[in-house]
Amino acid sequence: LFLPRRLRPPHSMQRQLVAAGVAVTGVAAALALRRLVVARRAAALLNKLQLKTPVPPDVEISQAVKLTPIKELFDRKFGLREGELFAHGTYKGKLSLSVYERLKHQPDGNYVVVCGINPTPLGEGKSTTTIGLSQALGAHLGQQVMTCIRQPSMGPTFGIKGGAAGGGYAQCAPMEEFNLHMTGDIHAITAANNLFAAAIDTRYLHEQTASTNFLWNKLCPADGSGRRTFELSMRPRLDKLGIFKAAPDDLTASEIERFVRLDIDPDSITWKRVTDTNDRYLRGVSVGTSPSEVNKKTGESLGRESGFAITVASEIMAVLALATDLSDLRARLGRMIACTSCAGEPLTADDFGITGALTVLMMDALMPTTMQTLEGTPALVHCGPFANIAHGNSSVVADRLALKLVGPQGYVLTEAGFGSDMGGEKFFNIKCLYSKLRPSCAVLVCTVRALKLHSNEAPPVVPGAALAAEYREERLGLVAKGAANMLAHIQNVRKHGVQVVVAINRFHTDTDAEVETVARVAREGGAFDAVAADHFAKGGAGAVELGRAVMAACAATSPREFRHVYDAKAQGVKDKIETIVREVYGGAGAKYSPAAEARIARYEADPALRSLPICMSKTQYSLSDDPKALGAPSGFTVTVKDAYVSAGAGFIVVSLGTISFIPGLPVKPAYYKIDVDLSSGSPRVVGLS
């Protein structure tokens, strides 16, 4: 009543004030409402898209949008309290896990996973679709929404693929900060991983060159009064050995020997050093070749052959992504296996006494990074495990926080890497197993281009080369035949009890008839709906119908219908592998190399390992283990070449092919286009994509 009618906010905003405990009568109400109106008017000037045709380069679009300061955005959307968001500059920050504790009794929002069909080598715009859908829901349909996506590795950013901030008018911003260092999480993983690698080699060196008594006196030195004490970090190894004595001086000579000597088998060391760079020359390296790494008594070199992996392939990345809180993170780090003893006993981070140090390095990285889309919808960017060599999903922590923040009527979009056979399957059977979250709906991203490739009648899609005429002209027959791949992915998701909305990421070369063919076949094949979206060129406005379809799918189904495709605890290792092959890939079964047979036999004999879920490592380009087997192959047998345990992450990695753990660079990497423009006064990044 104290404000002119034109300045009065709508009743919905007044209800927000009531919910926040603000009185809505009297002068105090007038002042509070006036502040809210001023904030809304200020916000109206931010995050507005100025659409251009043709669509400019991604980095130019991102730099042209006036963004909302991140603290202001999250405070306005979610009413955060003091100390719950720590700003890292103006447009990104870290979200405290204390938010979850405050809201843990609030019902979760709708949980939507975005995955895809088997892509072409160019990618089909899954990240772009995720962000475009977020902008549609939040900026155009008035819904409370949070987008949870993975942090990209800088290796591909400077290599072939480019960044992963989305594209066109559907991006996470600022895209330069998104695609580069962000808040340093990947650097923290690099530091922790390489500290562990150094600890392993150093311990081997000292055990080979020092007596047991020397090691004992260094690990547990006597103080001025002659008393020895155990460090807290030593207790897990002592417990593992069954030594429950509090005082070191109470240990027998035999117990001292067992405690100080890990007896590392150097040929068993699987823990690699990492770097966040594509560098093929680091795939195989010799370490410890200096004259100082020699057994002085025998002259024997203590060096060995090893190699690097890219940082996002580190088990620490998977551990971070699956941890639920700091205590769980510490426990998972402690369980990571680096090698075995000469007697074949697994040696973990706990055995090396390094778990506490690794946890300290990873503490800040456990908090998700807060960012925003171009149209001002909030995003949590956290973790980046690859989907072909790990489980390929953003973090459990981010999803749990987001589901509480959006409230029971809101929407959380979480992206799974590659297709429903890769990141999607691992989302359902690994991530949801540990998070205990149940999805409300799945969005399956496809393109006309990819379906034409899956017809097996169109030429290959080659990065850097012009697309063949088949991809630029209307070819309804190719689309209809290639749709078999899409139908297989729809059925994969439905087998988990989840409704599917097919998002047809539309390119300018797609015809109406081609798009309608895809939509019709998808609906007839079991999709809840199938909708074309043009968010790349139009931002959230181009994905409004997709947003409505997702809202309808969430309203029409219950998360209680969700189910895993196998029972991780009850089924054996081979049974789980072959269930995935039959039910998800459409194959007949699996055959095993002698090395895989031997490892799996050991895992089957250990109840703790036998009960772990399976993380399949295979090509993303086919439902099978053959990247050339396009469409929807059936009746095939996959070859399991190897298997190993990621005990900290909590899954068994099963390799169906030769997967490189560190990519190389092409003849002309993306870095040729990346530079700093100094001509406009303030430095401006150019060339990122």
How is this structure best described in words?
- The protein is of the alpha/beta class and about 700 residues long.
- It is about 40% helix and about 15% strand.
- It is built from 26 helices and 25 strands.
- The strands form seven sheets. Strands 1, 2, 3, 4, 5, 6, 13, 14, 15, 16, 17 and 18 form a twelve-stranded mixed beta sheet that branches. Strands 20-23-22 form a three-stranded mixed beta sheet. The protein has a two-stranded parallel sheet with strand order 7-10.
- Strand 11 and strand 12 form a beta hairpin.
Summarize the structure.
This protein is α/β, with parallel strands linked by helices. Helix content is 38%, strand content 15%.
Whole-number radius of gyration? 27 Å
Range of strand content: 15-25%
Count of alpha and pi helical runs: 26
Shape: globular
Largest pleated sheet: 12 strands, mixed
End-to-end Cα distance? 51 Å
Unreliable runs: 1-7, 19-23
The percent range for helix content is 25-40%
Count of individual beta strands: 25
Mean pLDDT: 93
Provide the structure class: alpha/beta
Q: Which descriptors would you attach to this protein?
A:
single chain, 689 residues, alpha/beta, twelve-stranded mixed β-sheet, three-stranded mixed β-sheet, 26 helices, 25 strands, globular
Topology, element by element:
Elements: H1 11-19, H2 26-43, H3 58-64, H4 70-78, E1 85-87, E2 93-95, H5 98-103, E3 110-116, H6 126-140, E4 145-149, H7 154-158, E5 166-167, E6 170-173, H8 175-179, H9 185-209, H10 212-219, H11 235-240, H12 253-260, E7 273-275, E8 285-287, E9 304-306, E10 308-310, H13 315-322, H14 326-335, E11 337-340, E12 346-348, H15 355-362, E13 369-373, E14 378-381, H16 396-406, E15 411-419, H17 420-435, E16 441-446, H18 448-453, H19 469-472, H20 476-494, E17 500-505, H21 512-524, E18 529-533, H22 535-538, H23 544-556, H24 573-585, E19 589-592, H25 594-605, H26 607-610, E20 614-617, E21 637-640, E22 642-646, E23 651-655, E24 675-677, E25 684-686
Parallel strand pairs: 3-15, 3-16, 4-14, 4-15, 7-10, 16-17, 17-18, 19-21, 20-23
Antiparallel strand pairs: 1-2, 2-13, 5-6, 6-13, 8-9, 11-12, 13-14, 22-23, 24-25
Helix pairs in contact: 6-23, 9-15, 14-15, 17-20, 20-21
